[in-house]
Structures are given as structure tokens and as C-alpha cells.
């Protein structure tokens, strides 16, 4: 049986990732990229879909576990009747091939141990040919192969490999699992102890760039490490999560593949990175963005592959039962073909932020931006699928129009602040036209609140971003009215903010059932409170949200307060970006050590 979503720890080599449960089982592992087919997919089915459990024979969850400070090196310890043992799990920086290293150390007495390994390829669909070759276990099927190196001998039974062994106090046993194409020469196995020291040194060196010394430093640093682990090192793209199809509602159909890079994460990502000292990562992210969006502005997508790929065909894996019966299990993401006007604003905002913070050379960025603006001037009045990627009819979403205004506003700022050439008067008029349109059609004067879409009476958590984006100041009574309305209608237990109400909106997202509370929205509420001058209320909410993290400081996409569980894909970049940005808002509001909440306006 797989664990709770919050039971899992992330390990990553910044090109692929795995999830390790409290019971010592790796239930999710994709090789050789974040979006590759999983060779351990028990997370979305059962153990027959592939896993690797390495733990005391007696079983049970680890007595304690923690990351080595500032790293993604996981240490899990068990206390048993006969002794104590530690298992260290990590993925070393990529050399010839991706590896998972597991080191078992005896801490006290003696502990009987068991390794149970089921190799599966293509998300548990393919059972490979497993054999012993030159002292190694080789599992091969089609283009995939994985090799296990260890001094512990495994024996095969029922399409799995087992080993029983014992560790004494002071003894150490290591395992190295390596993937490579089955048709290529086998890579040399890494030395596990040397790899451990090199991995520790990598994270230590990386952490020296961090300049953040404000409030909630531990939470900010852990979120930054998590985001680094979700960065595809060759390109700088950051995936939204390392998993697919973890449900937004247990047993429901809201199960999506998040192993892609979303443009709407861009400005939040860049802001979090540059303001905490990671200019190199920010520059790489911006360069990924420019490569991804280059081309016809009319074909701008909301998401791309980690290397900038444009195709992400959605399909259902019917052989997997889904996490706790939540089906279908999907790979790919059909939202790639949607029209979402907000991404134009997010791209323009990101590139303005990059210039404001002096991130790398601009090269041809401005020419790309001018082309995007040419399209947006004609296309901003179209209905779209909006921020939440609804699968119902297109609408005139207020947030989408506000982001169209952001695009025009950042174009004006770019020309005025950096001396770039462009039709600034035309863009100013566009700003005025969009603002007037939003304030007339997206605002309910009787209730003194902006609404989810034109002509609607529904609310939407994305409206909390209006002051952050600069569309209206926090002191504007329409902004304050919207904040109060959302607190009254979308907030649960004084903490959890729903994206929107599903009740009565069956045609909005085209899906059955409900969902948990999208955690980023709750952080947006904290931001809005802080910007409204309600700093202590914002701080209290922030601390309640931080308390939802698991014991390793990780957050998934959503939380269901009814059952007290995390839901959705994990770890979720949006959730961790929100932690960083809310901490920065608090630092600015309280005068603690931190940089401004936004880039300088002039």
C-alpha cells in the first residue's frame, strides 16, 4: 500500500526525480527525465507497478527522517528491538547516467534488513528481463535498462528481486541503481561514498549564493532547495511538480500531469530567485523562457516541455488503478492547446523584472516582446480558458484581462525605464482601454467586488492578485471590497482559499466532483492582507499554512481540511514559490532584512 501524499520525500539530480516513502520504499522514479516513463510507479497503482523498498525486515515507518541541511540528501532512521539503522537516499549530480544511491549504516546493535525491488518500465506496464551479469543485476526491456550494483546478492521470485542481510553498528552497505539506454555501452558505476560527498559539496556550494536573511529563513531555504531540485539543469526550466495524476480529490477525475514548465509560474519564479540571490538560476530560467516562446505569438502556449518542447499529448494509462482509486491516470496535458490570455502578461512581466534586476543580456528579447504585443492588441478581447485551464466553454475571465493590462503596462515601463524603442503612446491607450473594460464589466458595484468573469456573480481567488500586479492599489475600495468578499465566500476555516466555487458552475471546468483548497491561493490571501496593512493577520495565516508542510518542509498542490490531508501533485512549485514570496512580503512590511517586494519602479 502506498503512503499518504505528504509521506513522501523528494530526491533529485535536477534532471529526474523520485519519491521515497516513510517506509523506505521508492514508489515513484522517472528516468532519464522528469517527464520520462516511470520505472517505479507504485504511487499510481500498487507494488506490482514497480517500487524499491529498503528497510528493516520488521517493517514500519521510519522512526525519524530529515534532509542533510541545505540538501536533498534524505536520511531515514529506524529504531528496532535489536538496534538502530540509517538509510541515506540521494541522486548524485548527473555524470554518465542517472543514478539512485542508497547507503545503509548500522548505528546501534544489529538490524536485519530487506531489499525488495520490482523493476517496471513505462509506468508499470512493462516487466523487464532481469538477470545477473558480471556481479550486477540488469533489467532490460526495449530501449530501457537499469543496473543494480551492490555487495548484497538479490534473488529473483515472482518477477521481483529480494535480498536479506544484516548490518552491525559501524558497518555500511551501499546500493547504486543506474539507468541507461539498453543499446548503449554500460556506464561505469559511481562510487557511492564519493558520490555522497560530491553531492553534499554541490548543495553546500549552491547555498552560498543565497542572500535571504529575513523571517522564516528555514522555510524559505527549504523551498528554494526544493525548487532547485525541480529545475531541469540542461535548460533551466522548472517543472510544476515531479508527479502526474495525484488527485485533487480522492477518488475523483481531476488528475493531471504537472511535469511541464508553465509560463504563468515565470514571474513568481524569477522574482523569488533574483530576490534571494540566485541570479544564475534566474538568468537560465529567462533564457529557457525566451527559447520556448520564440516564434509566432499567436501560437504562444501556456506550458512547454523541460527543454521547450511544444507537444504534450494527453493520454490515459488504463492499466494503473490510480492513487487511492483516483482515475484516470494521465500523461501529457491537453491544456497545452488552450488559449489563456494571462500568459502574455506573465511573459511581459517576467522580462521586465529581469531587466529591472539586471539579469543577463537582453539579446533579442524586446523584439519577441513587440511581436507578442502586436498580437495582444488585437486579441485581448477574446474569451479564453483562463488561469485555471477550465475545460468548459471559454469566458471573459477578469484575471485574464487584468494580465492583458499587465502586458501593456510592462511594455510602457520597459520603454520608459530602459530606453527601448516602441509605440509607447499606443500601449498607454491600450492600458487605459483594458482597465476601463475590466472596471466596467468585471466589477459588481452592488457587492463592491470584482468577479470571476464578465457578467458573472461568482468570485475567484485570482482576484487577490490585483494589487500585487499593480492594476489597482491595495487601498482602492474595490480591491478591499474584493478581499472582504473572498474572505466571506471562498475561505474555509479562516485559512483555506478555494479557487472558486464549483457549486452551480458545472459547465465551468467541465469536470465532475470537487477539489481541495489550492494552497497558493491561501498564500495570496496572506499577501493581500499584508498589502492591506493587516500584517499580523497575514503573518498568522502564513504560519498556519507553513504548519501544513510535511516533516521535511514539503507541500503538495492542495489541502483538504475535511480529512486533514495534502492533495494533488507533489512537491508543487507554485506552493513553494508562494512560501518564498509571502516571506518576502512580510520582510518588506516589517522592515526585516530582505529586498523590496517588487523590482524598483524607476
Describe this protein's structure.
This protein has 602 residues and is of the alpha+beta class. The protein has 2 domains: 5-206, putative glycoside hydrolase family protein from bacillus halodurans (Beta-galactosidase, Chain A, domain 5), CATH 2.70.98.50; 209-590, Glycosyltransferase, CATH 1.50.10.10. It has 14 helices and 26 strands. It has helices at residues 192-207, 217-229, 266-274, 279-293, 342-356, 365-379, 398-418, 424-441, 466-469, 477-489, 506-509, 519-531, 535-546, 573-590, and strands at 9-12, 17-20, 25-30, 38-40, 51-56, 64-67, 74-79, 83-90, 99-118, 129-133, 136-141, 144-150, 155-157, 160-168, 172-181, 261-262, 303-304, 315-316, 330-331, 443-444, 449-450, 491-492, 496-497, 517-518, 558-560, 565-567. The strands form 6 sheets. It has a 15-stranded antiparallel β-sheet that branches. A 3-stranded antiparallel β-sheet has the order 24-25-26. Helix 3 (266-274) runs antiparallel to helix 4 (279-293) and helix 3 packs across helix 14. The mean pLDDT is 94.
Write the layout of secondary structure elements.
Elements: E1 9-12, E2 17-20, E3 25-30, E4 38-40, E5 51-56, E6 64-67, E7 74-79, E8 83-90, E9 99-118, E10 129-133, E11 136-141, E12 144-150, E13 155-157, E14 160-168, E15 172-181, H1 192-207, H2 217-229, E16 261-262, H3 266-274, H4 279-293, E17 303-304, E18 315-316, E19 330-331, H5 342-356, H6 365-379, H7 398-418, H8 424-441, E20 443-444, E21 449-450, H9 466-469, H10 477-489, E22 491-492, E23 496-497, H11 506-509, E24 517-518, H12 519-531, H13 535-546, E25 558-560, E26 565-567, H14 573-590
Antiparallel strand pairs: 1-2, 2-3, 3-4, 3-5, 5-9, 6-7, 7-8, 8-9, 9-14, 9-15, 10-11, 11-12, 12-15, 13-14, 16-17, 18-19, 20-21, 22-23, 24-25, 25-26
